[in-house]
Amino acid sequence: MAEKCHMCLLGLILFCSLLTGTIEVDDTHEFCSSGGSVRLPCNNALSDCTSTVWTYSRHSKTAELIALGKKKTDTERHERLSLGSDCSLNITKVTKDDYGSYSCQQYVNGQHYGSDARVYLHFLHVSVSPSSSQIRNGSSVTLFCQLYHDQVSCDTLVRADGVQLIWENQAGVSLQTDSRYQISPPGNCYSTLTTTLLDEDHNTEWRCLVTQINQVKTSATYIVRYSDPADSTSETVDFMTDGSLFRVFAAPTVILLQSLCTRAGRKNSHHPKEIEMSTVLQ
Question: What sequence ranges are listed for the domain Ig-like (predicted)?
Fold first, then answer.
């Protein structure tokens, strides 16, 4: 009898919670990188998405994306948004501008109903120094991997949610303990990888991964491509010798020598003679 009363009491509490809209909904963390797609779940959805409102906020600025099941068209990202049959928010061609806090809300008869389902979207990005045009065999390169987040601290992500940034190569082999790479200590939302490039690194792919409790959530990739020296911009130097003006076009592998004959005292106009000579630099 006591057990039946206990079950009835639990049912009554749940029923009252539904009526008063006080059911708590856990926050969700989603991770993405540039160009990908992401689904943001609406964990408080009712049977009909016509009651669903999605809002986005970052740095204390808020925008409404979905209003009672209909997509707003006055936002820059509206073409990349869609509402799923389960009221989830789908974002395609993700950019850095998309990270932030999203909230799925329910409105019944014009009244805010229940607790909001909040989704934190974190964005992973990899950059390189020096610039890609300066990368070549033998040079030192540093990759910067950063997890952008808002309204939740990095300490919370790392310590409470088990988020880590790790590096691996294109074969999926971890670089964390490889002595060739200097990798910053774990425990932050920012990681660097520094190494000296070798000839075989051309077209090599390095990845920065976000893991949460040892499960990969997303990754950002950098592909090493050595710049073609022949594409470098030539510089010109003019000098005079034996009454002629010489112009040298200096490129990394070839010198083009152009002789512009401008002998003093010549009255008749002639097209300048051009001499082109290729010399491989030693």
Answer: 35-105, 124-219
Cα–Cα distance, 76 to 81 (Å, whole number): 10
pLDDT at 38 over 90: yes
- CATH code at 23-122: 2.60.40.10
Tokens 């949460």 sit at which residue?
212
**11 Ramachandran zone, left/alpha/beta (phi>0; psi -120 to 50):** alpha
φ and ψ at 23, to 5 degrees? -70, 125
Specify whether the CB–CB gap between 78 and 2 falls below 8 A. Answer: no
Residue with tokens 């409404």: 64
**H/E element, 155:** helix 154-155
Q: Are 125 and 36 in contact (CB under 8 A)?
A: no
Q: What is the CA radius of gyration of the chain?
A: 31
Query: Are the CB atoms for 24 and 117 separated by under 8 Å?
Result: no
Each residue's pLDDT tens digit, 44-76: 999 889 999 999 999 888 999 999 999 998 878
Q: What angle do CA 158, 160, 163 make, to 5 degrees?
A: 35
| Model pTM above 0.70 | yes
What is the domain partition of the chain in residue ranges?
Answer: 23-122, 124-223, 229-282
CA-CA distance, 256 to 180, in Å (whole number)?
Answer: 40
**Which pair of structure tokens corresponds to residue 141?**
């390169």
Q: What is the CATH number of domain 124-223?
A: 2.60.40.10
